Structure to design on (537 residues):
């Protein structure tokens, strides 16, 4: 499913209006009518109940006025709250304002300054006579670029107070007012919605940071022509269940050699769990064979914990971590493998550092680079643009900060741009570009590549905030690479399946589950996706 940034959605609107001749007021009409349809689908018949619509100064406010009219037609009692004098509305919003006036839909104007208690008393009195069913937030849409302060900031506070104090659900028109469309962060203050009805396409803010304040999301078709979507270059997508349609098929006569052999370079003293979780996720996601390279001292732990995986034991009896001294053994082990996972729990001592840098530069196999390997690369950023083959980097925000030289809060302030800029920088600096995909982990994981593609994951939940989840993800993505998926599809399918497995567990327990449990749930997540796509075997 495609996603549009604010500028891209504006281009689509202009294309529909200026090239295809679809009047803006028609798009507005479709948006408002579609919103009321979703409201009735969500809340049931609204006949007889009062719906309070807060109308802003632009086209979002115009959408709200169309909503008021269609609510009236549906038998509801719309109450329009103008946040500016209605005579100051312009364009299509003004045209719909005139219709609302002729229909004598009740309204009030919130002049600046106003008394919050007066507003509450007005709404409460109406609530006692005719129950208020919900609030509609039609203040600002996707074009907002300034902080919400002063008069409009106080109105945002009123909407949020009505939601919490009087338990009134809030319906956001296109986007909760005050959210930045492209970052998903509040511009000063923002409305908290229970239902968001957006138009044409979903936007980054609907998914970034876990979609905080979005509530349940619905996308309404407002009849922007299909051709317009093809003519405006849209590089973003939401990672949904459909991405798993690219999972490799499994023939009835297949065998373990058919489904790839993954080499795992992970673990060190005190961090064997990272290697174990990585291997376990690779096995439970369908990889045919998994070999873990293990320092001799740690092999008993690995063998006892991973009875289905193979271990390649390094010769140095005293070693407890992988080292540049082991490079010949490791390069030999890579022969015949389909992919490599490098980094979970591997450590960052000097000899390990040399090994990581050499393998990143020289091994042509597709490679997932995670955890300690990312920390090492963050100290040698020049090496990042010298990959020996396709690379999937899987940083959390702190690791991304080390890779880019930015502060963690800067990464979090614009997760999408951070991931995209990092990848595109590689494209500019590499003479012969290998595929580089970045998976910026977190609520609303962002996937980006060095060709400008980007995606935001829609699965996962807050129960995943516990140790070891990244190790499972690395093993899962490595498994998909080994099974023959390309780097982009493996990264996107991996993050979706990882989150879906956790979502399945969360139906039984909201938090307190472990990374091992997520790894164990991967076969169920995969089967659910195959069933969804009509593949039941």
């Amino acid at each position: 499913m495609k996603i549009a940034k604010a500028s891209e959605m504006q281009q689509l609107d202009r294309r529909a209006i200026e090239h295809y001749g679809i009047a803006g007021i028609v798009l507005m009409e479709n948006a408002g009518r579609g919103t009321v349809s979703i409201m009735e689908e969500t809340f049931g018949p609204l006949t007889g109940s009062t719906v309070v619509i807060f109308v802003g100064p632009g086209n979002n406010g115009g959408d709200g006025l169309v909503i008021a009219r269609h609510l009236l037609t549906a038998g509801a009692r719309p109450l329009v709250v103008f946040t500016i004098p209605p005579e100051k509305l312009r364009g299509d919003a003004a045209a719909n304002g005139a219709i609302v006036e002729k229909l004598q839909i009740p309204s009030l104007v919130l002049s600046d300054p106003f008394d919050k208690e007066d507003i509450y008393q007005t709404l409460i009195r109406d609530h006692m006579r005719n129950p208020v069913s919900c609030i509609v937030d039609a203040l600002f849409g996707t074009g907002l670029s300034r902080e919400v302060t002063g008069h409009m900031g106080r109105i945002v506070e009123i909407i949020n107070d009505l939601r919490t104090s009087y338990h009134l659900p809030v319906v956001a028109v296109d986007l909760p007012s005050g959210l930045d469309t492209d970052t998903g962060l509040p511009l000063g203050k923002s409305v908290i919605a229970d239902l968001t009805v957006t138009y044409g396409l979903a936007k980054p803010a609907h998914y970034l940071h876990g979609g905080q304040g979005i509530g349940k999301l619905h996308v309404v078709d407002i009849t922007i022509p299909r051709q317009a979507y093809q003519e405006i270059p849209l590089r973003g997508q939401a990672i949904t269940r459909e991405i798993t349609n690219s999972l490799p098929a499994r023939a009835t006569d297949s065998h373990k050699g058919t489904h790839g052999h993954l080499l795992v370079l992970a673990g060190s003293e005190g961090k064997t769990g990272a290697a174990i979780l990585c291997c376990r996720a690779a096995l439970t996601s369908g990889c045919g064979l998994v070999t873990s390279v293990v320092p001799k001292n740690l092999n008993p732990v690995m063998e006892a914990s991973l009875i289905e995986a193979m271990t390649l034991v390094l010769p140095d009896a005293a070693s407890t971590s992988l080292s540049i001294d082991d490079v010949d053994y490791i390069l030999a082990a890579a022969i015949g493998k389909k992919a490599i996972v490098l980094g979970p729990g591997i450590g960052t001592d000097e000899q390990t550092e040399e090994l990581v840098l050499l393998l990143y530069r020289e091994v042509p196999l597709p490679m997932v680079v995670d955890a300690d390997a990312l920390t090492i690369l963050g100290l040698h950023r020049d090496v990042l643009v010298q990959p020996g083959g396709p690379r999937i980097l899987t940083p959390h925000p702190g690791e991304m900060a080390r890779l880019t030289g930015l502060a963690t809060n800067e990464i979090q302030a614009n997760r999408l741009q951070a991931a995209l800029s990092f990848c595109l920088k590689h494209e500019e600096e590499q003479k012969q570009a290998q595929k580089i995909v970045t998976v910026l982990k977190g609520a609303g994981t962002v996937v980006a590549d060095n060709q400008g593609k980007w995606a935001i994951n829609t699965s996962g939940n807050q129960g995943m905030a516990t140790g070891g989840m990244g190790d499972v993800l690395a093993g899962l993505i490595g498994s998909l690479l080994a099974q023959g998926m390309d780097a982009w599809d493996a990264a996107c399918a991996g993050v979706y399946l990882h989150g879906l497995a956790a979502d399945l567990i969360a139906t039984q327990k909201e938090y307190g589950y472990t990374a091992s449990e997520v790894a164990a749930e991967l076969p169920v997540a995969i089967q659910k996706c195959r069933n969804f796509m009509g593949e039941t075997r």
